[in-house]
């Protein structure tokens, strides 16, 4: 029946089926198939069988019809022509359709009801936990070595008044005369009529004190660091920062949008391996700007950064160093010139030095020192400088006076160092806590020996200790402050900020009290 | 010699490249040259080469037009995050010229592939399956439809 190009026809399914059924080679005929059906279903209706056979006969005849072998223009007409013509029609229909935008289907009533039923309102404020209820004590007088809290006179170990300059008569005198001369505010940013001669004098005085080419003043101590870092570090740069930096620096790192790599707190081996990894792993690192950010005296732990090693590493791997000297300016070094003098490193080797003046200098504001180009760049690109009002003039003149006082009275530093040593001696054998800070840092940090593992629990315990110290012994001590945004994971503890203005009896009192409370609460 | 292209009205940077003149021609030329490439690399019959081109075209276009959602640009704030490229072009308008062109191309490729392989079995089956999936995916009724949740959002 079908002899044309068996190879092609075998591929065609219908013809193939037909072939199987009708070919003499397979020996199955319609009749035998019907017989099989009949044998299988004993009660089959013969009418159906008849119809079935008639239908199949018709199909065979149709396929066998002469048109199946018509040759039209040299192309054999087979079933695939129909498929192609069909697809051609589909294309034509498709191309003739008009374009339309699918209608926006609004939500049905039922869908709206479902959504409303599922919705659970979120509370406006999170549930108040135990650690949120703690309110720090409020000072009712100046934050000197002795202050008033709740009407009671307490010894103040919570203010960073390292040299005891709060309430110093020279500072008060210069403030009063500045107030009388310039008024209170400066009413403008530095670039827009807010620059007063006291600002320029302050900048020159700081430069002379630290023997750096230039200085720039900021109006808020905390914002010094988080304006300086994004000024120099941009997206795509690499910053290697210590994991224990305070929140201001963390904010600056986040604002800079650079790649941040943290190294273990004050661990020079970790820093070395991190720098090594960065420089060798990424071939592109050589074309990126690279920075190391560290604090001179860490606010969160009281450690002092080993600047000589940092400078050695920086010179080996070609990084730039940004150092925050807030707690070391006026404190470390033989004449109070900061960490560089303390370690004997020339200050030119540090690229950017910033400091907040609210600590040893007992004023407010901050400054940044360094190369003249670095400082000049900040005058146009640093957000905190350009977009904030400038420092009130009386604070700038107080800063000048404070530096003069430090210059002329080196015995303040000696006294402060003696007080630190005394406190260390007193707290050496405290039970349940250990001294975790550097022996020369003005921040004496007591961390819990057996931490409960959760920061909240530790803080609750420490706050209880601080509250009892306040109530029973009239001592104002603080535990480390942890805000929700702070990503620092260092252990919490009690921070004691030693001042040159404390008397020896104060120090003895605080060590006795802490030892007693630690043995009562922590064992 | 250079065509002066009007700035496009499509704000979606993921799909605006398809609105410029010359895209269709480039598309067809890419298909043709890839057929030549396959022929020269694999030394197979022309029909086999067309089948390979058709199936490769199916894989590539299905993945990039109908599977991957969203845009590679971060600053469009994720408004296209649930839409595949096919659902994004021409701003969601159905049956525009671009869409008709992109629907016709796989059908034509199928016809060429199946014709030149003489409708032989393993290739024919694969080609038919490919074109079926391709064309169904491009129906206007399938706009934003995810069958059985395949490629749906969490």
TrEMBL record, chain A:
Q: Which family does it belong to?
A: Belongs to the class-II pyridoxal-phosphate-dependent aminotransferase family.
Instruction: Classify the source by domain of life.
Output: Eukaryota
| InterPro entries linked | Aminotransferase_I/II_large, AON_synthase_class-II, PyrdxlP-dep_Trfase, PyrdxlP-dep_Trfase_major, PyrdxlP-dep_Trfase_small
Q: Which organism is it from?
A: Brassica napus
Please give the name of this protein: serine C-palmitoyltransferase
Q: What is the lineage of its organism?
A: Eukaryota, Viridiplantae, Streptophyta, Embryophyta, Tracheophyta
The biological pathway it contributes to is: Lipid metabolism; sphingolipid metabolism; Sphingolipid metabolism
Residue ranges of every copy of the Aminotransferase class I/classII large domain listed in the record: 152-462
Record keywords: Acyltransferase, Lipid metabolism, Pyridoxal phosphate, Sphingolipid metabolism, Transferase
Q: Report TM segments.
A: none
Indicate whether RNA-binding appears among the record's keywords: no
UniProt EC number: 2.3.1.50
Automatic annotation (TrEMBL), chain B:
One BP term from GO: ceramide metabolic process
Tell me how this protein sits in the membrane: Multi-pass membrane protein
Assigned GO CC terms: endoplasmic reticulum membrane; serine palmitoyltransferase complex
Q: Which InterPro entries match?
A: ORMDL
List where the protein spans the membrane.
Answer: 20-42, 101-117, 123-140
Q: List UniProt keywords, sorted A-Z.
A: Membrane, Transmembrane, Transmembrane helix
Which coarse location class describes where this protein primarily resides?
membrane
| Record's subcellular location | Membrane
What sections of the sequence does the record tag as coiled-coil? none
Q: Which domain of life is it from?
A: Eukaryota
Record protein name field: ORM1-like protein 3
Taxonomic classification, please?
A: Eukaryota, Viridiplantae, Streptophyta, Embryophyta, Tracheophyta
